[in-house]
Amino acid sequence: ACTECGRCQSQCPAWNTDKPLSPKLLIMGLRDHAFAKGPWLLAGSDEKREALPDAVKAEVERPLIGANENGYAHPGDGGVGGVIDPDVLWSCTTCGACVQQCPVDIEHVDHILNMRRYQVLIESEFPTEAGVMLRNLEHAGDPWGSGASSRTAWMKDLPFDVRVVGDDGGERIPDDVEYLFWVGCAGAVDDKAKRTTKAVATLLHEAGVSFMVLGDGETCTGDAARRLGNEFLFQMLGQQNVEVLNEVGARKIVATCAHCFNTLANEYPQLGGHYEVVHHSELLNQLVADGRLTPVQPLDSTITYHDPCYLGRHNRVFTPPREMLQALPGTEYKEMPRNSERSFCCGAGGARMWMEENLGTRVNENRSAEALALSPDVVAAACPFCLVMLSDGTTALQERGEGGARPVEVTDISELLLRSITPTPPTADAAAGEPVGGQA
User: What predicted TM-score, i.e. pTM, was given to this entire model?
Assistant: First the structure.
């Protein structure tokens, strides 16, 4: 169905940072290979296959994934190399920009994920550094390998108690609890994401929203495993989580990680988990709109917002985070040129968070340069992976003298809202004279 218009290629973060992946050439390569193999597939007997031209036989023998000089092999070149080069396959961030742009609804990402599954589960061929992440998921239940014991460390410094399912002797979430707060691996382990977790918990407490967490009963949703192609591991982790969620009677879930949000809302129903899932940007914006949270402290900041791919393009959540940011007093909001449906990826999706970026230029620096061009005080996002990538990108650019000398903070939208509600948030960081967002 490909019209060869190239709109997918023009929006692809991999192609725009000099990687070999072109969604257009990928689809054309798969199509040409299928047509070249067609006579062999349609032949009704071995005798008819033997009578086919050598060019057809050569195409039949060619592996779908294999090294070739140009990234994409085409029929008629003697069957040299695979149809798709591995560097093409593993450059994808699964951001969905190609699918969003395609006028004939080709699902490029689905093709890439299916090929990754074959490479991982059948050929055991994938980037070596991703193996560490997969082993950590198998043995510890999180990509960092911290284990279940670290799942509640974030709540120790809070001035109020966070209710954990099962701690009061009950095995199910009581009827008076409105939300199960899905903390996620990053929210429990990563230092920057833990500040987001504390901020969201504090805001929910301030607004009088009753919530509980699973504590050590929570494990990774399996998003990274599925994007990498380890479908077996995703199914194992997903079934474990669905079993726990169904046992405790989870009905409404709020998540701070865009990847957890997408998996819980769109993929767990395949495993028997049907829940009402909201992202924290949606819930916090609604609490502000309802008057249950009132931002009053001026922030005196220029803010720009980065759309996480798995929140924006994949789930169409564009307006709530922007409404919330624009409701903060003392702020000037600036929009990046590439935003909303045409936002540019941070580079962490598709399990790229756990792989080295050795080809071309860095995706996160490309996006960070776009943000820094607006001369903001704060680059806000709503996903822990985006925060890591944009923090690294802005730091690298400014260290090289390419991002201006103005100090720039990268933080979650929840931390900005908390600062506007309480000048010194009630956390251990605040007690030390540092706001939740990390800058005095």
Answer: 0.92
- Per DSSP, the chain holds a count of helices (H) and strands (E) of 20, 9
Query: Are the beta carbons of 212 and 245 closer than 8 angstroms?
Result: no
Mean pLDDT taken over the chain = 93
Q: What is the pLDDT of residue 439?
A: 36
Which tens digits make up the pLDDT trace of 225-240? 999 999 999 999 999 9
Q: What is the pLDDT of residue 44?
A: 87
Q: How far apart are CA 404 and CA 272, in angstroms?
A: 50
Cα 370–Cα 372–Cα 376 angle in degrees, nearest 5? 125
Q: In terms of DSSP H, where are the helices of 333-423?
A: 363-372, 384-399, 413-421
Indicate the pLDDT class of residue 438, thresholds 50, 70 and 90. very low
User: 429: pLDDT confidence band, cut at 50, 70 and 90?
Assistant: very low
Q: Are 436 and 415 in contact (CB under 8 A)?
A: yes
> Which helix or strand (DSSP H or E) is residue 181 part of?
strand 179-182
Phi, psi of 412 (to 5 degrees): -80, 150
Distances (CA, A) of 328 to 299, 324, 325: 7, 7, 6
How many angstroms separate the CA atoms of 342 and 244, rounded? 37
* pLDDT value of position 433: 40
- Is pLDDT at 298 greater than 90 in this prediction? yes
CB 282 within 8 A of CB 312: no
CA distance 207 to 421: 11
Distance between CA 80 and CA 154 in Å, rounded? 54
Cα torsion 369, 373, 374, 377 to 10°: value is: 60
Residue 426 is classified by DSSP as: S
Residue 411, beta-bridge partner list: 380
Give the 3-state secondary structure of residue 310. coil
- In terms of Cβ atoms closer than 10 Å to its own Cβ (0-12, 13-18, 19+), residue 138 is middle
The values of phi and psi at residue 182, to 5°, are -85, 110
C-alpha to C-alpha distance for 406 and 135, rounded to whole angstroms: 41
Cα torsion angle, 186, 191, 195, 198, sign? positive
In which residue are the tokens 């057809």 written? Answer: 56
Q: What one-character DSSP code corresponds to residue 270?
A: G
Q: Give per-residue pLDDT as tens, 93-136.
A: 999 999 999 999 999 999 999 999 999 999 999 999 999 999 99
Q: Where are the beta strands (DSSP E) in 185-330?
A: 211-213, 252-255, 276-279, 301-305
**H or E stretch including 331?**
strand 331-334
Which of 380, 372, 376 is closest to 306 using CA atoms? 380
